Amino acid sequence: MPFEIIKDKAQNLKREDFDKEFEKHQKISRAGAEKKFGGHGLLLDTGELKAADEEELKKVTRLHTATHLLQAALRKVLGEGVKQAGSDITAERTRFDFSFDRKLTDEEIKKVEDLVNFAVGKKYQVEMKEMALEDALKLGALHFFKEKYPSKVKVYSVGDFRADPPEIFSRELCGGPHVKNTSEIGHFKILKQEAVGAGLRRIRATVTP
Ligand SMILES: [Zn+2]
Predict the structure, then answer these.
(1) What spacing in Å lies between the alpha carbon of 29 and ligand 1's midpoint?
(2) Is the pLDDT higher at 147 or at 168?
(3) pTM of the shown model
(4) How many A from CA of 175 to the centre of ligand 1?
(5) In angstroms, what is the span from residue 156 Cα to ligand 1's centroid?
């Protein structure tokens, strides 16, 4: 079961039931990943990010920061109705699901790509700060839904913090890992878009050095 569905269900679950569901989901994902990687296990498996070795870890880390930039770019181009519904990142690509009710035009796809590559070209810093959940929400950090988070959270911001006022391109509640500077990401390219349900779209994208 995709974790997003668990999260939807979770709103109607008690905390302990949610933890059980979550654990079950983690076991299933791990089993699936082990099968895929020939039973050798994974260096990293957060559920969202999967890497078999150091080289893959570097790639998924670049793709993870690129995914934050992608969400920010989608919201800038399509509006703030765009919300993350899930993501899945391997060394080959990032897969990002978000709420939106129609196909993106070629022009919109190009705009989103250009914006992500603009953020890469700006050599933005990626900064992590731990703070109280309510402070993170006040800062407008993007998140899934409040109930899931502990009272202290990590917030990853991407931007130019030396500018006055600071120029923030993206800000999200997230566990990492991320690159330190967007220049590490490389060139960002959208490979494919598709519908995955009512009001839900999926984008696959990759980065090249
Ligand atoms: Zn993240």
Answers:
(1) 18
(2) 168
(3) 0.80
(4) 6
(5) 8
